[in-house]
Amino acid sequence: VSAGNGCGHTLLTPHSGTLSSKNYPGTYPNHTMCCWRLQAPPGTSLLLAFGDVDLEPSEHCAHSSLLLADPQTGTAYGPYCRNSVPSAPLLVTNSSTVTILFNSTSHRSGRGLLLSYATSQHPGTHYTQEHVSPDPSLIMCFSVYCPAGCKDIHGDIWGNPSQGYRDTSVLCKAAVHAGVIADELGGQVTLSREKGITLYESAFANGLRSKRGSLSEKRLIFHKGFPVCCLLSPACDDVLEVVAFNASSWWHEVDVLGQDRAWVAEQAALSTTGHSWAAEPGAKAAWLELDLGTRRNVTGIITKGSSGQHNYFVTSYHVSSSRDGKNWRSYRGSSGQEDKVFEGNADSQGEVSNAFIPPMVARYIR
Which of 24, 43, 87, 138 is deepest in the core (most CB within 10 A)? Predict the structure, then answer.
């Protein structure tokens, strides 16, 4: 839990999370405070990674400070500020409960703070457990645990799931973009550093826009990821075949020349040229249905607008699934609390991918 007027981006779960001060990485405000209480499952302890602690220096950190306390043992850590920083980037506690207190008085500078945490079940948080070959010509593979909340931290990513990512990208943020972890949960990621490429193309995926980037010596390849395709199978390199399309309605257009154009459901396939599917104008709760022919494990979807001639696209959507075509279940994602709203397209040209974490087992998708 968190409380106070100085809290910035905060995502706390029982197993990991990310927190920052207000306005981070811009200058934090005057006369603010925030208190975060971290609670791990019984029998585990908390590990805290100091991503950034940049509070204006003062004697005994009196003007702005970060203080951590372990109420179970009575141990305190800090106070910290710019002239009194943590002695190590990783703090290993012996407690399942930690209280973090940030406060500021009048000041002129300072980015504030960025912290992440995980439990002792995930000791690789933000630090690579690398398996390095003595032969420098071989690919270097490693694993890292990414805490929840990486999507909204400061920093850029270059590349996309099919190419890989420029090695200067924020690693865990790139993992969310690639669809290997859900931002609201985090998780273990296995990846490799491979030879870089000349150009990294921008893409919009899982609510994040990557940048178009130039040559790098190395690139990051996520091994839980999937390449760009339409509906995605667990094999990760197969597009799932759609046996039949159905829709709540379709638009029967008569253009200015009096010619008929049918925007039928069959036009919804990603590879279709010309116009796409569109519901009848004014239709409410419109849906498109895909029949996969048999029950399949579906790990993601890619959407695209209609052709450049017809600048139409869907900006957001829900997904539901069925095994028999009669009983439908709304997709709620990893949180399981409410129906997930997927962020769709912003124009008619680009493809937007969204991962299903966890995957769905279904024959029918709406």
Answer: 24
